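Appendix B. Chain record.
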Amino acid sequence: MQDEVVALFAYDRWANTKVLDACRKLTAEQYVAEPVPGWSSVRATISHIALATEWNLRPLAGDPDDSVPTGADLAAVDDVAWLLERAYRRFEELRPTLTPERLNTVLTLRAVGRTFTLPAWAMLRHIVNHASYHRGQVASKLRWFGIEPPNTDFFFWVIEQIPQEVPEA
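Structure tokens predicted for this chain:
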């Protein structure tokens, strides 16, 4: 399971990088605009991905620091990229400790006004799944603004990891 978690985080990093690169094509006005009333902005959505990734890794790292940047602290795409990189460094520090026993250790955490208990492996999978969900929202918003979103399907990340045979001409 450790290898699977490591692969999922490598995929997540790859996919988030592609989305952030696409977001850099937006104008400043597009980045903060609600494309449709009731839809959050691209800025709010990618900031949420970064904040949730950082916040959800903390219980695994045993990090008691409750200070997390706010959405206002993440004004530019590069600010979001910085926070995601910090989270991925945190994951890399955790990686050697993610033994099967540790991955099955039950964590108790508070979120959305409730207390939850779940194994560490489930929290790590949640982080990647949660980001995938919101990357889909960003893709819709990018299309709304006339920008072709990158393909961030796990399938394509795997294809990039495995050398592909090219048929001889």
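Further analysis of this model is presented in Appendix C.
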